[in-house]
């Protein structure tokens, strides 16, 4: 206490507080730099940890995997038979595959869904189990790139046949063959929990197989595990999967990066894996959907295994991976309970936990809060009471903006014209340069400051409530929206140049323009303008909240700051200044 | 204002006092932490509440020798009449052991084997024991009386006599009965339970309270006897069925003043294993040393797709005389997959079959690398000992009826009994084990899918948990009637108290005609005739739902209702990581024309689990606050409060800076003097 007291006295003597208060905008900017710096620190040695299997019962790869030898002949047999089915309609296909499932005693049913495609699923009732839990082996007929998942389908069926001969299963095994890995899979998962008559208990884990290659060989496995809304599977199952894959002598790639980046340990490779993880998590649901996303939100630990390349390991190796993962999950007597539900992998065997990366999002959210304080305190209107007209008007504008955002949220993806929307927002952003809005709206400087203050405190609250659940989105949104705090109120803008810069900041921090720019630079999977229709459809069908948060959180803030930046007639400004002085 | 540390000498007592207050203050929040987690439960949406759960079964007549008692089991009566000697055989194990020709005990055993579809085989072991006759109400403790049990197990006898148990039923079942392909459950489902352990009993007692006490005693005793967790059966698990499980005959009442109470409890997904089978075999006079029970080996019984152990004890009174006897029926049912079991005998590790062993579909492309597999082979030859790992060891030597083995198979099967390397066959496929040798049963067929029809299942029922949105979940029950007559069904369900049921949400979700696909427009009142509901009471009583529902022919009716999950007290959660709470299966009884009982699968309920680090957090926070308060109060008590100016002045003559200056001066002066010297 004594030390604090001394420091306090020293600070008071030097008059630090008023100085800091005077430079709040700089403090806010420094916090953003700290936030980015914290993220950049994470891949440094000592900042990340080695992954470990928390639940001892999982024992990955401790049992020998037998999916080999003559099972390959059977796999080939199914593969040839499936090749003959490729051009057949889904109904015929499902009928034929159903008869195969009957042959090895799997109960099966078809979930009819005219809109998204029928899903055939089979339930194998385990011999040792009590029938209350199940593991899912999911195979989308067409994968995310719209290729026929021949290898995956053949593997799914031959693995199910192979599993049905084992007496060891304590959890039911469910084989799901859906039309596609997104809408059809998601609708099946929803139906399973609501309306299907043939069920096999609560789903504990799900493995999605993707092997579209015509070849019987593959080089490495891409592992996808990002769920919707920043949700991740328990770190244990990811560790088990990586451990099993590497135990089979196969290399694993995370976040779609190439192998050399995965397996050469350097700061920049780790940073790249981390940043791609953040980006992919933020855009999850909008990017390609691999199938594991469909299980998100129901405490089902889901992974997608994708076989890449055409040479190297044979297809039975790819089959042994789900086999070993299934055997591990089968060992579990309880739910997955590794203490890490939020993490980022920096390498296949290294991760950073939420405790390490969360401070950077917290800094970002605080910096918005400080910006809000800055717009409230550091001007002559601080003396104006909070119950003043301008505050009330600012509140009304706030609710108005939220209402507009809600209207935006309702836009159907078919009505949306992304080109027009981007162009319109660009024009709107640079509107304050002209004199068009002047006769229509006049914004008093006091109102302008209050609006900004309210806007920043609002986005700060949105980010704070989001940052634990969906760190990637909160971080990305905070960074992209941050230029809003650079905009100066009209009373501070004198030259035309500063006005142009102001409008530029407004433009690049507009949610739609910012998302568009970000996606076109950093994301190869999404072709520029499609991102908006993707966002809307994933909001509607996949339960992805990114679009809603963008509209309600970010767009509302932007509207308020924009209104605050509308030009004020100089006369009004002068009069106002005089009055207040 | 500044506080400067300056502890007076007399402050030590104050310090001790403060420490005491601190510790006191620290303890209080911890004791509150427990209560914080306590939940308050309200359930106002209960429509049909049987507030007073006095659903008891009253016998119409008390015990009266003149009243009509329907002794249904005529086989026992006939066995009493035809007293025949045990067929003496030429080969006796030990010539020293002599059996009296006319000595027999009331014990019967038989094994019934039924091939099922897709190469499954059901073996059903039946044992029946009658106790010696006794007069009800006459104490056997008199000095000239003696207790004689013969073959009836003494342990069971004690439980029954001490607690006036008129009926006792125990079920240990595990596995999935595939009614779609296997057909009816053996004994129409009346000898199988839901997954786990089930216990119900009819107890004669003067009041419900006494009955519960006896029930608890029975459960505890059985728990020790069968190594099960039946000791966890308490009021919160015990139900008093209203119509299901009620005996359909007049149960004898020994004391006219008493009443009969039916009580039931189930432990869902309790593991069933060897330690349950061994006590069951110990009840038998043969003790699995001879007769059909020699086959019952834990390794094989529990390595099956479905197995069920059951024990039923009944008190039966003869109408003409005043005597009663206890009847015990034990049954072990096992379903095995024949090819898999034989494969496991050859190689316990399910290695891929060799290239020659592959059976390929020749109608499809196949070569040395490729093979589209054929379904299971229907041509099969096997011996019973292949499945059970043992041969039948002799017959039972104590009853007048030899142990019998019957195979219920179609004409396509060739069934023979093997004894001393010789094979015999009979027309009925039934064999009496009359020698004391090792016997085996030989099965051969070209088409194992040819079976005796068992697929006239009157009703299929399944139940699942719906989780459509955050918050309320639902239970969904699907009734499917595949027959062409309407079925009146009794549905019994007991749910733990932490499921808060909204009975007002009970609806017919869907009703479909399965032949035409037409949807009926049914209201819940159209299908449900009676509904009895006993609302749960926290930690005291489970939810009990019983209703009668009529399922029209060839139709599916889906009922659903919603429920809410309660929070438990934090000490009520399992101490370790768990997979959820087990919900016992619902029991469905088809009332006629042939009675049939089946059970749904059990369910898993995942309750919202609180953050268990909360008590820890509370402790940490309170300690911090206490520490801060202690520090402040301590400072206030032992330090002087001064103005800033005073403090500056004192610091100028006593602060560390001043002392340093003094030291420097002194040193300098010394060195100075030295220099001077």
TrEMBL record, chain A:
One GO BP annotation is:
attachment of GPI anchor to protein
Keyword Transmembrane belongs to the record: yes
GO CC, sorted alphabetically, is:
GPI-anchor transamidase complex
Q: A single Pfam family, by name?
A: Gaa1
Report TM segments: 20-42, 357-377, 389-408, 420-436, 456-482, 503-522, 542-564
> At the top level of its lineage, which domain of life is listed?
Eukaryota
Question: Does the record bear Transmembrane helix in its keywords?
Answer: yes
User: Which residues belong to the signal peptide in this entry?
Assistant: none
Q: Which UniProt keywords apply?
A: Membrane, Transmembrane, Transmembrane helix
Protein name as catalogued: GPI transamidase component GAA1
Q: Which organism is it from?
A: Tetrapisispora phaffii (strain ATCC 24235 / CBS 4417 / NBRC 1672 / NRRL Y-8282 / UCD 70-5) (Yeast)
From TrEMBL, chain B:
Signal sequence extent: 1-33
Q: Which GO terms describe its cellular component?
A: GPI-anchor transamidase complex
Q: Name one GO biological process term.
A: attachment of GPI anchor to protein
TM annotation in the entry: 616-638
Keywords per UniProt: Membrane, Signal, Transmembrane, Transmembrane helix
Coiled-coil residue spans: none
Instruction: Report what the protein is called.
Output: GPI transamidase component GPI16
- Organism in which the protein naturally occurs: Tetrapisispora phaffii (strain ATCC 24235 / CBS 4417 / NBRC 1672 / NRRL Y-8282 / UCD 70-5)
């Amino acid at each position: 206490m004594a030390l604090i007291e001394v420091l306090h006295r020293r600070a008071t003597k030097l008059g630090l507080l008023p100085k800091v208060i005077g430079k709040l905008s700089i403090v806010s900017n420094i916090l953003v730099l700290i936030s980015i710096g914290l993220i950049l620190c994470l891949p440094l040695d000592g900042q990340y940890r080695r992954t470990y299997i928390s639940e001892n019962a999982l024992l990955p790869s401790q049992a020998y995997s037998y999916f080999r030898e003559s099972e390959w002949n059977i796999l080939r047999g199914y593969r040839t038979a499936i090749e003959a089915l490729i051009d057949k309609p889904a109904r015929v296909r499902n009928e034929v595959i159903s008869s195969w499932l009957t042959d090895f005693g799997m109960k099966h049913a078809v979930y009819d869904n005219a809109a998204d495609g029928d899903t055939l699923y089979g339930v194998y009732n385990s011999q040792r189990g009590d029938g209350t839990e199940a593991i899912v082996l999911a195979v989308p007929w067409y994968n995310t790139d719209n290729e026929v998942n021949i290898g995956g389908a053949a593997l799914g069926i031959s693995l199910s046949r192979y599993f049905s001969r084992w007496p060891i299963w304590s959890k039911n095994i469910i084989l799901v063959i859906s039309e596609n890995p997104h809408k059809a899979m998601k609708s099946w998962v929803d139906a399973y929990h609501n309306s299907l008559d043939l069920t096999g208990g609560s789903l504990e884990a799900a493995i999605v197989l993707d092997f579209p290659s015509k070849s019987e060989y593959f080089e490495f496995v891409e592992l996808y595990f990002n769920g919707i809304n920043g949700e991740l599977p328990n770190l244990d199952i990811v560790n088990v999967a990586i451990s099993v894959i590497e135990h089979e002598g196969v290399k694993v790639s995370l976040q779609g990066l190439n192998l050399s980046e995965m397996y050469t340990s350097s700061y920049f490779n780790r940073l790249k894996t981390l940043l791609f993880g953040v980006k992919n998590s933020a855009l999850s649901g909008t990017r390609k959907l691999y199938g594991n996303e469909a299980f998100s939100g129901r405490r089902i630990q889901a992974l997608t295994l994708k076989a890449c390349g055409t040479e190297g390991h044979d297809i039975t190796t790819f089959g042994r991976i789900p086999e070993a993962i299934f055997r591990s999950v089968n060992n579990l007597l309880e739910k997955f309970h590794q203490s890490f539900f939020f993490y980022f992998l920096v390498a296949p065997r290294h991760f950073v936990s939420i405790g390490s990366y969360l401070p950077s999002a917290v800094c970002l959210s605080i910096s918005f809060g400080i910006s809000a304080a800055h717009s409230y305190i550091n001007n002559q209107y601080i003396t104006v009471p909070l119950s003043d007209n301008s505050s009330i008007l600012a509140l009304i504008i706030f609710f108005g903006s939220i209402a507009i955002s809600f209207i935006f949220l309702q836009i159907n993806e078919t009505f949306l014209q992304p080109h027009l929307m981007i162009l319109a927002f660009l024009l709107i952003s640079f509107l304050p340069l002209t004199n068009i809005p002047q006769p229509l709206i006049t914004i008093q400087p006091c109102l302008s400051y209050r609006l900004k203050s309210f806007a920043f405190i609002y986005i700060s609250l949105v980010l704070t409530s989001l940052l634990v659940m969906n760190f990637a989105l909160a971080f990305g949104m905070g960074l992209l929206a941050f230029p809003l705090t650079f905009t100066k109120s009209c009373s501070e803008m004198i030259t035309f140049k500063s006005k142009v810069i102001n409008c530029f900041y407004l433009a690049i921090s507009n949610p739609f323009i910012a998302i568009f720019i970000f996606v076109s630079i950093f994301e190869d999977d999404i072709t520029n303008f499609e991102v908006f229709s993707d966002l809307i459809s994933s909001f509607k069908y996949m339960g992805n909240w990114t679009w809603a948060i963008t509209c309600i959180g970010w767009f509302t803030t932007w509207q308020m700051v924009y209104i605050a930046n509308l030009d004020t007639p100089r006369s009004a400004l002068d009069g106002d200044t005089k009055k207040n002085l | 204002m500044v506080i400067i540390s300056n502890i007076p000498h007399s402050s030590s007592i104050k310090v001790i006092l403060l420490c005491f207050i601190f510790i006191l203050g620290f303890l209080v929040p911890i004791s509150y932490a427990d209560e914080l987690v306590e939940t308050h439960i309200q359930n106002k949406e209960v429509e049909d509440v049987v507030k007073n759960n006095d659903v008891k079964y009253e016998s119409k007549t008390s015990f009266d020798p003149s009243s009509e008692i329907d002794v249904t089991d005529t086989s026992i009566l006939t066995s009493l009449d035809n007293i025949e000697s045990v067929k003496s055989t030429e080969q006796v194990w030990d010539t020293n052991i002599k059996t009296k020709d006319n000595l027999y005990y009331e014990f019967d055993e038989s094994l019934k084997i039924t091939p099922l579809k897709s190469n499954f085989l059901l073996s059903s072991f039946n044992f029946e024991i009658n106790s010696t006759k006794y007069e009800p109400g006459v104490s056997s403790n008199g000095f000239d009386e003696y207790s004689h049990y013969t073959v009836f197990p003494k342990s069971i006898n004690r439980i029954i006599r001490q607690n006036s148990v008129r009926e006792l039923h125990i079920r240990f079942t595990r596995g999935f009965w595939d009614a779609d392909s296997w057909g009816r459950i053996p004994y129409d489902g009346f000898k199988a339970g839901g997954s786990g352990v089930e216990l119900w009993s009819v107890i004669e007692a003067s009041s419900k309270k006494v009955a519960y006490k006896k029930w608890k005693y029975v459960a505890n005793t059985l728990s020790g006897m069968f190594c099960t967790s039946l000791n966890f059966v308490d009021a919160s698990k015990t139900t008093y069925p209203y119509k299901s499980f009620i005996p359909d005959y007049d149960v004898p009442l020994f004391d006219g003043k008493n009443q009969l109470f039916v009580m039931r409890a189930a432990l869902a997904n309790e593991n069933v294993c060897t330690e349950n089978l061994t006590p069951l075999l110990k009840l038998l006079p043969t003790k699995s040393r001879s007769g059909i029970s020699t086959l019952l080996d834990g390794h094989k019984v529990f390595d099956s797709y479905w197995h069920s152990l059951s024990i039923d004890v009944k008190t039966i009174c003869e109408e003409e005389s005043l005597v009663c006897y206890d009847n015990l029926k034990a049954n072990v049912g096992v379903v095995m997959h024949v090819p898999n079991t034989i494969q496991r005998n050859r190689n316990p590790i399910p290695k891929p079959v060799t290239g020659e062993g592959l059976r390929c579909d020749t109608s499809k492309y196949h070569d040395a690398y490729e093979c589209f597999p054929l379904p299971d082979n229907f041509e099969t030859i096997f011996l019973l000992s292949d499945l059970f790992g043992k041969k039948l060891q002799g017959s039972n030597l104590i009853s007048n009826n030899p142990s019998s083995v019957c195979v219920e198979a179609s004409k396509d099967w060739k069934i023979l009994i093997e004894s001393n390397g010789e094979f015999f066959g009979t027309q009925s496929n039934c064999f009496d084990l009359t020698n004391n040798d090792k016997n085996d049963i030989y099965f051969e067929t070209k088409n194992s899918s040819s079976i005796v029809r068992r697929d006239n299942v009157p009703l299929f029922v399944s139940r699942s948990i719906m989780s459509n949105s955050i918050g309320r979940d639902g239970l969904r029950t699907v009734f499917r009637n595949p027959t062409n007559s309407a079925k009146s069904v009794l549905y019994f369900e007991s749910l733990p108290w932490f499921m808060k049921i909204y009975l007002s949400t009970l609806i017919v979700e869907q009703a479909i005609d399965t032949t035409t696909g037409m949807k009926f427009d049914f209201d819940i009142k159209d299908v449900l005739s009676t509904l009895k509901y006993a609302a749960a009471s926290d930690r005291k009583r489970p939810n009990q739902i019983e209703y009668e529902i009529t399922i029209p022919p060839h139709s599916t009716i889906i009922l659903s209702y919603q429920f809410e999950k309660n929070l438990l007290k934090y000490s009520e959660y399992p101490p370790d990581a768990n997979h959820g709470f087990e919900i016992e299966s619902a029991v469905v009884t088809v009332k006629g024309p042939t009675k049939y009982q089946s059970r749904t699968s059990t369910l898993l309920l995942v309750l919202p689990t609180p953050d268990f680090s909360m008590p820890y957090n509370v402790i940490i926070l309170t300690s911090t606050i206490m520490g801060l308060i202690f520090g402040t109060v301590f400072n206030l008590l032992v330090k002087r409060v001064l103005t800033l100016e005073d403090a500056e002045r004192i610091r100028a003559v006593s602060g560390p800076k001043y002392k340093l200056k003094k030291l420097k001066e002194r040193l300098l002066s010394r060195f100075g003097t030295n220099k001077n010297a």
